[in-house]
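Reviewer 2 asked us to include a model.

Predict the structure of this chain.
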Amino acid sequence: MSWFEAIVLGLLQGLTEFLPISSSAHLLAIAQIFGWSDPGAAFTAITQIGTEIAVLIYFRKDLARIITAWGRSLFHTEYRHLIDARMGWYVIIGTIPIVVLGLVFTDQIETIARNLWLTAAMLVVFGLLLGAADRWGRRSRPVDQLRMRDAVALGSAQALALVPGVSRSGATITMGLTVGLTREAATRYAFLLAIPAVLGSGFYQATRIVDEPSVAWGPILIATAISFTVGYAVIAWLIRYVATNSYFPFVIYRLGLAGVIVVLLIAGVLQPL
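Predicted model (structure tokens):
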């Protein structure tokens, strides 16, 4: 991987990771359009560490409250009713599905799941689901009304993002809107829920390839740093955006991107794998 590739892919990762438009779909398509090799699941997972560090910094106060309240609730019953203490458990429980499926289907995630025909289909299906949830969801429940069954449902939705084209944030937000959360509550929880899964996946992939002589660690680290910087700006913008706007533009974008990928596949510009 060249330095130019790393800069472009890092920018792309930072711009698309938190928007419900699938960062992996963009990375797969752009790499082929420019004649680059598939950056691979490992590259995607490692550069996502940069975007998740942006989440850690942006939500540092929320995370400090959650970790403190959750830790105290283990020993003091009076803390267990607090939303911050419950949120700690919700994130832990919600992370289990993606960890289990990620470990069980590692080989498939890194091979057949990266088929661009499948990616285009997922862009369409989950784009329409996001549009339906945003249009008909009650959007009345703030984040402090989350329940354990919601955490299981949103965690299961997040696990679907192991398939490129689904979008981690998109799937989680869609489920959040479906169970009645407000746009802001669904978006905030989607960011928090992603932290352990993304960091765990990134560091796991790093340990798998750390000794491979062919790995271009310099470009990978540059891409990770760029994804952090751009990702932080995107988080701040999206939180403000969803407070007063719908997800409809992202639905249209997903459908348009799927259409472009299909046309390029038919024309032979892109190859499925």
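Residues 183-209 form the longest helix (27 residues). Residues 116 and 272 are 5 Å apart (CA to CA). We have added this to the supplementary material.
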